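Case study B.
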Amino acid sequence: MSELFFLVFSLVAVVAAWRVVAAKHIIHAVLWLVVTFFSTACLFVMLEAEFLAAIQILVYAGAIIILYVFAIMLVNVKDLAPEAHFHHHRRLAKWLGVIIFAELGIVVLRHFIPLLAKGPLAAQQAEWGGNSEVIGRFLFTDFVLPFELVSIILLVSIIGAVVLAVNQERRA
Amino acid sequence: MISLNWYLFVSVLLFCIGLVGVLIKRNVIMVFLCLELMLNAVNLSLVAFSHYLGNVEGQIFSIFNITVAAAEAVVGLAILISLYRNCEMTNVDDFNLMKW
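Model:
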């Protein structure tokens, strides 16, 4: 049963990702991206990362996509016309993608990766009550320095966005 | 039970689709969207490793990854809006002032 769900979700994710790249209109690309994020969230649930699935839907499919939609509304984007003088570069890029995909695919699928010695995650989840409890404990004990650094990154990006997007002429 | 290989394979597939998109698209917003696709593929492989190794580190790392992706989107779109206000275009090939 889980194989069937894995097949469906991964197929939807890959097809939607392909539609993002192949979309003729930019808003269609954004909507297909939402489909990819949702099916990736379903794969996260299958991997027993429920908190991350919720974060994926809230932050990625919610906040970031809304940001893109606002940017598209503010910027006058014309339809994505194919560039006539650009075919050489496009073919090169496609072949590069195929080569990298072949390399990585061979590396990933060549050996069956055996189930390694299971770490303490399942026991911790059973003991502490769930996935988000485990993540919260680790985030505020072992990973407290990266956590603070990430909050500084967010602060810098907020200030950067305000500084960059403010209207210079009106301010002067 | 699905083996780790197949999750990694899906992740590789999503990553390569995003990579091709970044390379062939000429619109700045489309390039950003494909970049998000690549980051998402990496998150999938991190979570798969986290599940199959029984460690929570992969999930925590992908939370940081999502945060950095959000910061990148915010700053990138602010730069885009600032550029659009100044020169009314969104094609990456037109922005070559600092290229060489």
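The longest helix of chain A spans residues 50-74. The remaining cases will be described in the next quarterly update.
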